[in-house]
Specification:
Mean pLDDT: 90
Helix content: 25-40%
Radius of gyration: 18 Å
CATH architecture of the largest domain: 3-Layer(aba) Sandwich
Order of helices and strands: EHEHEHEHEHEEEEHEHHEE
Shape: globular
Strand content: 15-25%
Largest sheet: 5 strands, parallel
Distance between the termini: 38 Å
Structural class: alpha/beta
Number of helices: 8
CATH superfamily of the largest domain: Response regulator
């Protein structure tokens, strides 16, 4: 997907920030649409197709977290949260709301462009066709060719990053994959020290796949090392 065909929706109630982001991304060749509220963002998303959403956390009306959760009901596109809050808890909260990444205000335009490109790259990432196109573990079925996941016959919507992480774990069944390996493989080398991303996305998978109580060991945490997928 070339920048010229990539459509990005940017949402912020600060008009000056909107203008800045729009100008920077358009210089990079992206097609940019802007909105100033969560409600307007949802309307735009329901009306048109976008490849990425840049979403401010603090919005009038419905806030960024609520907007993010609502959009996740019908879209798996990459979402980057903009936040002026620097504490880890708020950043984790944004990721847990199904955002793919976050950028802290004030930000450099170079950082923003890098995060946008990284998110787009992950959304388009495909791995070589595995020798086994399907993984079955209890009620969980992973179709690697169709990139489709079902639990007890019900399809589970995963974002591209969530699916890539699950597939990587499942195709290495019984093997411990280290934090560093998974971060490099799924997010890229620039994220190799971002352990919170990995922890949050594993928890998102467990919640979506309903891996509770005894099924938690399907994606097993190997303390201080990494994760292991176990076919049950």
């Amino acid at each position: 997907m070339s920048p010229k065909t990539t459509r990005i929706l940017v949402v912020d109630d600060d008009v000056e920030i909107l203008r800045l982001i729009r100008r920077v991304l358009e210089i990079e060749g992206f097609h940019v649409i802007t909105a100033e509220t969560g409600e307007a963002a949802i309307q735009e998303m329901e009306r048109e197709q976008f490849d990425l959403l840049v979403l401010d956390l603090m919005l009038p009306g419905i806030d960024g977290i609520t907007t993010c959760r609502h959009i996740r009901n019908f879209s798996t596109l990459p979402i980057i949260i903009l936040t002026a809050k620097t504490n880890v808890e708020e950043k984790v909260k944004a990721l847990e709301a199904c955002a793919d990444d976050y950028v802290t205000k004030p930000f450099s335009t170079q950082e923003l462009v890098a995060r946008v490109r990284a998110a787009l790259r992950r959304s388009q990432m495909t791995f070589p066709a595995p020798s086994s196109s399907q993984v079955v573990s209890g009620k969980l079925e992973i179709n690697c060719l169709d990139r489709r996941v079902t639990v007890a016959g019900e399809e589970i919507k995963l974002t591209p990053t969530e699916f890539n992480l699950l597939q990587e774990l499942a195709l290495h069944n019984g093997k411990v994959l280290t934090h560093t390996y998974l971060l490099n493989r799924i997010w890229g080398s620039e994220y190799r020290d971002e352990l919170r991303y990995l922890h949050v996305f594993v928890n998102r998978l467990r919640n979506k796949l309903m891996l509770h109580e005894e099924n938690q060991r399907m994606i097993e945490n190997i303390s201080g090392v990494g994760y292991r997928f176990n076919i049950l």
